[in-house]
What does this fold into?
Amino acid sequence: MTTVDLHTLTGAYALHALSDEEREAFERHAADCAACAQEAAELSATAARLGLAVHEAPRPALKVEVMNRIGSVRQEAPRTDPATRTPRSGARTRRLSRWALAACLAAAAGLGGTAVWQHDRAQDAQEQARRAEQRTDELASVLAAPDARSRTAKLADGAIGTVVVSESRDEAVFIASGMQRPPGGKVYQLWFDDRGTMRSAGLMDPGRTTEAVLMDGPVDGATGMGVTVEPAGGSAEPTSDPVAVVEFPA
It folds into this structure.
């Protein structure tokens, strides 16, 4: 898949219409393409708003009204040749009419369930977009803080890690470039080094090799940070040797 092809996948990515292989390829591309990343985020937010705009909840009494009328409203009987009509055709028509109405009701209920599902998906997407935007704003605030200080270190396999610390905000950002993906079922976990005691600072995205992460929690006097490989979901304390150790700038 060429770079030109990847540029055209922003809409499909926003609508979750890509295969796993295409999604991973696009996410790798978007990590280095700010234009595609921004366009995909904007399209995702737009899709969420459109999903909310077309949703309309039925009146609570609608189901009761329909159920009450099933037994009293007859559908117009199909036209038949009187010569071929049998004495039982009227009863059979009434049964078929009720079945048809019941089928329509079931279909309407199914569509209602689909609308609720779409509404829930739209709300989830909107909440995820809101959280992502909030986290991005916080990350940018740390990087732009007047007292922000940074330190860069070479990591394993030629990767580079940079930590940025703002004392006034009591927050830190870790920026990794060129890291190898963790083994299957594993994830990179960040840690604050509280003078020898490691405190969890969140997880990195296992599908990205380049990422900027706002570390979870306050710096609170930590002297540095580390990165370890942990089981998916993270660990309460490090279970492996660190793949990266970076001291905080003075």
Summary: The longest helix spans residues 89-143. Confidence is low (pLDDT under 50) at residues 51-55. Residues 149-247 form one domain.
